[in-house]
Amino acid sequence: MLEINSTDIDSFLVACHRAASYKLQQFSSGNMSRRISGNLALLSASRSWLEDITSNQVAVCEIETGKLLNSITPTVESEFHLGILKQRKDIDVVFHFQSPFATAIACGDCADINFFVIPEIPYYIGKPAIVETLVPGSKELAQATINAMSKTNLAILKNHGLVTVAKTYNQAIQQAGFFELACQIILTNPNAKALPSDIITSMGTYKMRADKGE
User: In whole angstroms, what is the distance from residue 98 CA to residue 83 CA?
Assistant: First the structure.
């Protein structure tokens, strides 16, 4: 019989509720996954609402095989969640969100947008990847998203939403929130300008030093 640490479940529920409290998704639009061991992951259930998700709406799957280990059907996007976790050993959380301003940008021509209007984007996220419009829940979307997330921490799924990855829940939620803020600035301030390149370069140097604990 499958036994999962109740602390892992509780932490997952708290993170889902927190993400919803920041309006990063609406109704059943968002989904989240978390690596809880080398080859196990928790995933929000299909059609669950993150704002009030319960322990009866948390699926458990093997990351390597995608095999479902309990009776709860995972999100329809489970294939890209598990694929990203399998590919990115450096992260443990995958968060698919549809916040209003970021999703509005995802529904337009975003290829030439410079999202570096606030320091948090180059510092925490970097340049987002863009995934072309594909059917939600399809193998094609899953593979395209897995490929896109191989070297970035955020991807724009055109006409769909966003995906971000991180080591912890808080980091993933923060990245989603900062990107939503940048998109809000871009869409509401016609005079918004990107950060100067020398500032971005300096921030990159500072980040490398911070990551090393200097």
Answer: 20
pLDDT in tens, 182-204: 999 999 999 999 999 998 888 76
Amino acid sitting at position 163: V
- One-letter amino acid at 75 equals T
* Beta-carbon contacts of residue 209 (< 8 Å; ≥ 6 apart): none
Question: What tokens were used for 177?
Answer: 């929130």
Question: Which DSSP state fits 121?
Answer: I
CA distance 9 to 140: 30
Q: Mind listing the pLDDT tens digit for each residue in 89-136?
A: 999 999 999 999 999 999 999 999 999 999 999 999 999 999 999 999
Nearest to residue 169, comparing CAs of 3, 11, 10?
Answer: 11
**3-class SS of residue 73:** coil
Radius of gyration of the chain (CA): 17
